[in-house]
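hey can u check if this looks right to u? its 339 residues, i copy pasted from the old doc so theres a chance i mangled smth
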Amino acid sequence: MDNLKQILRKKTPIWFMRQAGRYLPEYRKIRKKEKNFLDLCFNSTLAAEISLQPIKRFNFDFIILFSDILVIPFALGQKVEFKESIGPILNKIEFSSDLDLSNRCEQIHKLDPIFKTIKILSKEKKDKQLIGFCGGPFTVLTYMLEGGTSKKHSIVKKKIKDEREDFKKLVNLITEVSIIYLKEQIISGVDIIKVFESWAGLLDEKDYEEFIIEPNKKIRESIKKSFPEIPIIFFPRQSQNEIFSFINKVKPDVLSLDKKILTNIYNIAKEKNIILQGNLDPNILLNGGKELEDEVKKIMLQFSQNDHIFNLSHGILPTTPIDNVKKTLDIIKDFDEAK
């Protein structure tokens, strides 16, 4: 935490979700050569190069590992592939017995190329902080059950209703493997970890407690027990009022925020010494112009009394103009210098 606090004392640090990706021509050039996305994630040399591309172009303050949250289902023996213009496609599982539950060490061994990528990056990061990550257990499980991205999540909702114990068993399994995976990332050289609980907003209060708060709390407690100095960012997307229960029980070091924020979050974060991260709308970054300039300045003012990492409320969109990214960084720098 000390390194992160030192950065915050000097300026507003910046990184963007999905900062290494399709909006960059240098990424698209590599992607044309490597059609299989998971193969690209497991090519340590190329994955490290992609992770560093936005740093070389924009000099962001953080490097985020180029990988995907669905490497966990892959490690558990589920077939995972990515199709252009469609996204992830997984062969649907129905029960915990559909997965490889035999050997945790062997499962994590499948992800060795990712740890190799981290080792490469840790040698090349210079003064940058390296972020590793995983998906939140509930979020990862939604993809595993639905077979990919879903709008209604009907299979997940039915599973919770009709087969709650098996659903809980699956969440616990993913939580356990995620903890091992994150610890290996830390051992390999990441400075910070992030947990993307992107589908947290699907659940009501009772289910949120059991399937969002409890697994994320287990992750935090286990990581902090082994690596107390490692900052943990949590992103419980679209949690609405449940965000306050999440803060109190999970105790994030850094809380990543949606574009819509409950106004009392600022004071609560200050009281609990939580760093806030966010929260520019990716669509505003895409559109640019005066709206972008006004929104960036508004965010800087809103967070001026908090420890704040400037970021997006979700991933950067593939058609985002590079000039808009550069403009955003310039506005933030000018704002900091004018303080």
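DSSP finds 16 helices and nine strands in the chain.
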